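Notebook B, p. 112. Complex prediction, attempt 2.
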Amino acid sequence: MIYLEYLLLIFLIVCAILAPLCRRLLNAVLVFAAFSTVTAILWLLMQAPDLAITEAAVGAGIDTVLFLLTLKTAHFLDGTRDKK
Amino acid sequence: MSAKELWGRFAAWVNGEAAPAARFEKDYRPHLPSPRRRRQEEDSTGHAKTHEVLLYRVSTVLASVALIGILLATVTQLPLHGTPGTPDQNEVALRYVEKGLEETGAVNLVSGMILDYRAFDTFGESCVLFLTAMSVFVLLWNDKHSLPPKLEAERKEDDQILAEEEMHLLRHAAHFLTPFILLFGIYVVINGHLSPGGGFSGGIIIGSGLIFYATACGQKAVSRFFDRKAFYILNFICLAIYAGAKSYSFFLGANHLENPIPKGIPGAILSGGMILPLNICVGIVVACTMYAFYALFNKGDF
C-alpha cells in the first residue's frame, strides 16, 4: 500500500509541475482535475474520508465546471462562437 | 496633480475605461508627428517596452523567489511531526476523541466537532459562501437592462440552437441519473453524523446534480422549481435557523448548555441533537450557492 502512496505522490508532483506549463488552458484545467482526484484518493488512503468526499466533489467536480465555464465565457474553448 | 484628478484617474482605471497612463493629463491631445519624428518615437517606445517587460520579468522572479524563501523559512520553524509538546498534542484532541461521542451524540467525530464544538466556525463558513454568491451576483448578474441587445440576441440564438439539437444521450442520461445523484446527496447530508460526509459535501453533490440537469436540459428546466426567489428564500431561512440555533450560547454566555433536542441513541438516524438539522441547513445553503455559481457563470441569470 505504501508503494501506491508513493506512486500517487509522484503523480501529484508531475501534475503540479505540468499544470502551469500547459500551453492550452483546457489541458491545464484537466490536469488540475486529475490533481484533485489523486488528492482525494490520497486523503482516503490517509483515512480522512470526510476530506476525500469534499475534495472529490469540490476540486474535481465544481472547480472544473467553473473553470470550463470561465474559459467558455472568455472564448478560450474551441467550437464556441469565436473559434469555429 | 490634485487629489480629485488622481481619484478620477483611478476610478476610470478601475472601470476599465483607461489604462493608468498619462491619458488624463489636461494637455493631452492625440497628435500626428512627422514621419521622421514618429520613427524616432517608435524606436524609443519600443526600447522602453522591452525595458519594461524585462523589469516585469525580473521583478516577478524576485517576488516568487522571496515568497518561496519566506514559506520555506516558515516551514523550518514548524515543530517536528509527532513530537510531544506541539500545540496539536494538547488535551483538546484527546477530549474530542474520548468524550466526543458522549457529548455530541455523533458517531462521525468530524461532524460532531465541526457542528457542535466548533459550530460557530461552520456558521461563519456558510455566511462566507453566501457572501461569495452575492459578490458573484454583483459582478456577473445580467438582467435585461444590463445586457447589450446584440449579446442578448446571440444568447437567444444559442438557446434556440441548443433546444433544437437532439442530444439524446446526454438528455436521457440526465433524466435517468439526476434523481440518483440528488438522492445520494441527500443521503450524504442526512447521514452526516453517522458516516463520512455532511452538509458541505452533500450540498455540493446536490448542486452538481442540479448543474448536470441544467447542462443537459437547459437552465429553464431547473428554473421551473429553483429560481432566484427560491435561492434567496432558502438561503435566508437556512442561515437564520443556523444563527438562531447556535447563537444562544453566545448570548447566554454559557459554554455547555443543555440541548433542547435529546441526543438519542448513537448510531440512529435521529440522534446527535442539533447536528442533523444544522447539517441540513448547511447542505441547502451549499447546494443553492453552487447552482447559483453555475448559473451566474454560464448565463448571468437563473
